[in-house]
């Protein structure tokens, strides 16, 4: 009876929300989404690639928790959770009656197996630290999962909402990269490499009201102009992430389409090797910060779309502190700092730009011009993506680069001196540790803001702008996310008006 009442209440609330918006959602129809990057595989637990999550996360796979379009952490496969006052015991109450697409039931034992797999030595998971903080796992019954942490972790619930923590079935998980099986609203149908991934409605989804669409197809088109042509020709229904904002103007004027411009968690930064001279000198890094006009960069590179940042934290994430005024555009101040650092005549350096991302190339060119005006002469070197990953990210063989960091809450990378920009600060590591062990909102806010202030003051990287979540679609498409507070292109609640 309780279950029936809850379901009825849910239906009424959904209907009321739709009525308030002016029209009830309709079931049926197919959706073809155009994205630039084809994922290297379809297993989000095996790679940190954002391209994977944009296709399968929330569509095919689900975790214990999830993040909604407003940035709130809400129930996923767990109906609710409770955290002890000392922050060390997290108890999840799981949904009943959930099954994977292959018919295997999801329960506490399956959740326990997934967590143990993520923490295991030799795991392919990109973030085993998310799970290795767990000291003990208990499953009192099929719907109760009790986790005891080694230490309090204020980001634990956050991490459980990321692609790394989605639930896989115990049978058939070995082939997840090519044939994903999840609990989500859509089931995997086919992957034609180099072209598309197809998925269809999961008729046995735990929420019988969702999804609205019958079929979803992700098309991979790397060139932004080709994306725009495909949308205008009707070959695709939406560009999920337009990486050439200058193309948006034509669509804004065309009544057949609509453009959504929101915020994301992808910070575009001028990555800096903090162990290579002269960038091991904080004064040099601060001089570069003063030499960059962020507003001009956004206007020239992103056609005015994008939000300036002063640290490694997006405004869409809780505890954000606006530090864009820390190093205002001031070329004269930049020259003074360079002279104080021992470079009165400037110096020469190389910036390695990943050829795959148009915004990185354009931003690199604009930044090179700005730094040149204060005496820093940059040689631009375009490198293929595989080369960038190997030489810049893995071998740390670079001086400067330009890239977007798409993971939410990823300021913790600054606590790792071996990360590719090789920043080594005990002050930051201590502040980050305090943020993680904080058990109240006030303490978390205090220390996460302090983390932002430290990397901003040290000018670890060139903090430029948050890449906008810029989507262009047919006018009849409804309920697409405007903001992307996590790495996802969630089609669960999307529907066609026509």
Total strand segments: 22
Within CATH, the superfamily of the largest domain carries the name Dipeptide-binding Protein, Domain 3
- The spatial strand order of the largest sheet comes to 8-9-10-1-11-20-12
Structural class: alpha+beta
User: N-to-C terminal Cα separation, in Å?
Assistant: 37 Å
Mean pLDDT: 93
Strand content: 15-25%
The second-level CATH architecture of the largest domain is Roll
- pLDDT under 50 segments (min length 5)? 1-20
CATH fold annotation of the largest domain: Dipeptide-binding Protein, domain 3
Largest sheet: 7 strands, mixed
CATH level 1 class label of the largest domain: Alpha Beta
Q: Portion of residues in helices?
A: 25-40%
General form: globular
Number of helices: 14
Total domains: 3
Radius of gyration: 23 Å
Topology:
Blueprint: H1 2-21, E1 30-35, H2 50-56, E2 65-67, E3 73-75, E4 78-83, E5 89-94, H3 108-119, H4 129-132, E6 134-141, E7 144-149, H5 156-159, E8 186-192, E9 196-201, E10 215-220, H6 224-233, E11 238-239, H7 248-253, E12 257-262, E13 267-270, H8 282-291, H9 294-302, E14 307-308, H10 331-340, E15 347-354, H11 358-372, E16 376-383, H12 385-394, E17 400-401, E18 403-405, H13 426-437, H14 441-457, E19 462-466, E20 469-474, E21 477-478, E22 495-496
Parallel strand pairs: 1-10, 1-11, 15-16, 15-17
Antiparallel strand pairs: 2-3, 4-5, 5-7, 6-7, 8-9, 9-10, 11-20, 12-20, 13-18, 13-19, 14-19, 21-22
Helix pairs in contact: 8-10, 9-11, 13-14
